[in-house]
Amino acid sequence: MSILPQEELVKKWESEQASLRQQVVEEDTEDWQRCHDFTGLERVGGVDLSFIKGDDVNACAQLVVLSYPDLELLYEDSQMVTLTAPYISGFLAFRETPYLLEALQRLETTQPSLLPQVVLVDGNGLFHYREFGLACHLGVLSGLPCIGVAKNLLQVQGVEKNEEHQSQIASLQKGGESFPLTSDSGKVLGKALRSSDSSTKPVYVSVGHKISLDTALRLTHSCCRYRVPEPIRQADMRSREYLRVHFPTAADT
């Protein structure tokens, strides 16, 4: 992929995104999603990539599976990978998805009983330039329900980090409260969630695949002990620790 000139690569990726976008399911598909307390949900996954400082090619791809609702570790997979696709804004998924998908496939092959019923992704879903972020990409290719949970606001489709946005954040009084991220066209692409009483900085939740926004929001909040939901927090911590142990002279980013 990376041997194509960037302009051609962008066109190719835009076409692939548009095609895969048609497969995204933006509603609840599982029985547990329709239960107020998520009865039947037992395994929640989290994925993340951590890079060696100063190196944007070699990374640790991390998958964790936690029990639900206790959020105790059931499975973890840390794998060093070499990213082959270039970084182009709006196309992060083409760099990262293959390695996260491989982690899920390894688990399905070796211990299928531990395969997560939903995956929380450190990144965006429908809240994206073309409504097809990393969580959508991974969801469609894996067939699993996925939720995008971003730590920083992606300024797209008229959503901006302006005074109005800051005012909306300030209006969130307690954990679980949220406000919509509405595009210029009027479509709600995601929601800003105050994930805990102690955290005033929100996370940004959007649909990845096979789940509704309201359910994604409730589940994300229920997985939060701190600001970042536990599956993603554990994936991030464990991938960074892996780099610290195996590359002690190069601090992770």
Automatic annotation (TrEMBL):
User: Where does the record place it?
Assistant: Cytoplasm
Please give an example of a GO cellular component term from this record: cytoplasmic stress granule
Q: List, alphabetically, the InterPro entries matched.
A: Endonuclease-V
An example GO BP is: DNA repair
* Superkingdom, taxonomy of origin: Eukaryota
One of the Pfam families matching this protein, by short name: Endonuclease_5
Q: Name one GO molecular function term.
A: metal ion binding
User: What is this protein's name?
Assistant: Endonuclease V isoform X1
